[in-house]
Design brief:
With about 170 residues, this protein is an alpha/beta fold. It has a single domain, classed as Rossmann fold. It has five helices and six strands. It has a six-stranded mixed beta sheet, with helices on both faces. The longest helix is centred in the middle third of the chain and has 17 residues. It starts with 10 loop residues before the first strand and ends with a helix.
């Protein structure tokens, strides 16, 4: 007999990896520290030219999470380069599956390339999926930011939640 599946009740985090692994890791760290998110699952979505950095990003996600006392399941999804449609389909499917499992889904677009970010947000929007958060680590300067989050002056960085910002203006 197959045991019944208990729906998830936690958070899932989808993050887009582009040219900067530091941007991905620092945005994740900021979300944990500033927003209090503790995802049970983290999905790193990247394009083929950046796939070699995905294992580094996954290891960093595990290390940062461990510093906050939890250990999420981390997976990597590799997309073809600059395929707007495939990026949208993949991320929409991933978000839909997580939502159907009962997760509250957040997406971080900080490190993603424009084609992946646009594909993801358009596809998720058209599908009417209930994303809880869309995070972006805004920097007022990009000088000397390829280092750990806590080593970058906080006055030049701010974690933004596009969903929260949009609701505040409604």
């Amino acid at each position: 007999m197959i045991p019944p599946v208990t729906p998830a009740t936690g958070d899932a985090y989808i993050t887009l990896l582009g040219r900067s692994t530091w941007a991905l890791v620092n945005a994740y760290h900021a979300v944990l520290r500033e927003k209090g998110l503790r995802p049970e699952r983290v999905s790193i979505v990247t394009e083929e030219p950046y796939a070699h950095d995905a294992s580094i990003a996954a290891r960093a996600i595990r290390i940062v999470s461990g510093g906050y006392g939890f250990a999420p399941e981390v997976q990597v999804e590799v997309l073809p380069e600059a395929d707007f449609v495939r990026a949208g389909q993949t991320i929409r499917s991933l978000a839909r599956d997580l939502i159907q499992q009962g997760f509250r889904v957040a997406i971080d677009i900080t490190s993603g390339r424009k084609v992946t970010v646009a594909g993801a947000l358009i596809a998720v929007s058209l599908a009417g999926l209930d994303l809880r958060h869309i995070y972006y680590l805004a920097m007022t300067s990009t000088d000397d930011v390829a280092k750990p989050y806590m080593m970058i002056p906080h006055q030049i960085q701010r974690i933004r939640d596009i969903m929260e910002d949009a609701e505040a203006r409604s």
